[in-house]
């Protein structure tokens, strides 16, 4: 676990009054950023409906149902091994790369079943981009990192413009505009992760999946990524997996809390609760959620 | 507080100083260290003695003949016998190995590592390749010798078969060493398997593949046994003077290690005593140049980023 050092302190059990205060804080922050609390005005863009994931005979995730709304940030939180990354990776069919992986149930994108016959996982990933836990730039120049995706997708426009606008949207342009031909590895960890975000948005997806995007970064770089997520939310739908509950509370509109059942040494993840972030962190419906967010478990 | 240390603190300080003192020499550790170094030196000494011995024997040849030893062809007369025919034969074999074993071997490695599903068949293939790499080289010679052609093409094909498993294994290892995070990054932006392999896996694996394959080329050039079985010329033969290219590649041929072998068995003392060691030096130089090329290629391809 690589949370910020403040996590434990801030997650200490809160008396009711402080909880209400936290809820107010979260709502105020959201109002500042988006001009309102999440409402149902945004359409559901990705719908997970009774999704089960298996690796061979191993039942990794049990029956997850989450409606993800457009231009919101949806956070998946929960203890290690609860299947939150597994679910995230089944949304853009990254799990297809693992031979034994199998998804049951329905994952719909704009109402279209992503696992329907004739769906090309490569095309799916062009619409649903991904940012990984460890920054993983290609061992190429900064420019080529951004240009690769559009190039293979057959982009015909002005590549220089696209590289610039992608880097700008990822809040990295000013730092790298004079060294686009230099290796991506010359950047700091936080810059590399923003480069990976720029790379993901260069193919103009409308959904971004982020798998613990800040867990390998220091607190300052983490805050920059979170700021960036606020910005990106204007245009993109973001689903973020995080170990860091403060992060989920800070950035997300809605949060899904996963937990894990251990049966004869096999761990099966399941969804405990999915609701508005402010509600989940202050007035969770389930005792299990409350135990987790107050630090009594996990 | 900072200037005066209490008695109690002094006592603690003394205890700690004593506790963290070095307690004598650590015999086991020192012995082990010395043992390792000694064994390493044994290898070096053997190699140096061997080299010095050959150098001393070969020196008169180079001193008297100079470059002509390298540029003269085969001859029954020790005064004029040179290794040029052998160098040509070895180069021809090397070229055939490069053209044949490398493309087939690297392609097989890509298939095994990136495409083959993890089934019993692919695991069987993998094991077979590893076992083939351990088959004695003479067996490949018997295989090549069962064909009719006693020419340099047959030799090149046999040598290709001999090094193919090694090329596959080294290329596989280089491909496996490419971190999965690079593959994921490629798939994540909507690349197909082919695009991921071509644009990311292969460039990252290239230094390892090049080094490995050039080193196997050195093996192909140094091998003697298979060539003897296939029917390389071990005695004197007249190299085709004004022969056409076709005549040259279908006619008699020889190679550097074979010349060393055949000269060391000649009845005339000069052949065994000074000419064979000189031919060994030429062979070693060729191998060192190849190994140097491998290192140069790796550095050139590796340090791009």
How would you describe what is shown here?
The complex is a heterodimer of chains A (about 300) and B (about 300). Chain A has twelve helices and ten strands. Chain A is of the alpha/beta class and about 300 residues long. Chain A has a domain at about 45-140 and about 210-295: P-loop containing nucleotide triphosphate hydrolases (Rossmann fold). In chain A, helix 5 (about 140-150) crosses helix 6, helix 6 (about 160-170) packs across helix 8 and helix 8 runs parallel beside helix 9 (about 220-230). Residues about 1-15 of chain A have low confidence and may be disordered. With about 300 residues, chain B is mainly α. The interface of A and B includes residues 122, 134, 184 and 196 of A.
What is the fold named in CATH at topology level of the domain at 44-139 and 209-293 in chain A? Rossmann fold
What's the helix count of chain B?
A: 13
Q: What string, H for helix and E for strand, traces the elements of chain B in order?
A: HHHHHHHHHHHHH
Question: How far is the N terminus from the C terminus of chain A?
Answer: 11 Å
Please tell me the CATH architecture of the domain at 44-139 and 209-293 in chain A by its name: 3-Layer(aba) Sandwich
Evaluate the radius of gyration of chain A.
19 Å
| CATH class category label of the largest domain in chain B | Mainly Alpha
Determine the number of helices of chain A (DSSP H or I, runs of at least 4 residues).
Answer: 12
> Would you tell me the overall average pLDDT of chain A?
87
Instruction: Please give the largest β-sheet of chain B.
Output: none
Spatial extent as radius of gyration of chain B: 28 Å
The dominant shape of chain A is globular
Number of domains of chain B: 2
Q: Specify the biggest β-sheet of chain A.
A: 10 strands, mixed
Oligomer: heterodimer
The average pLDDT of chain B is 86
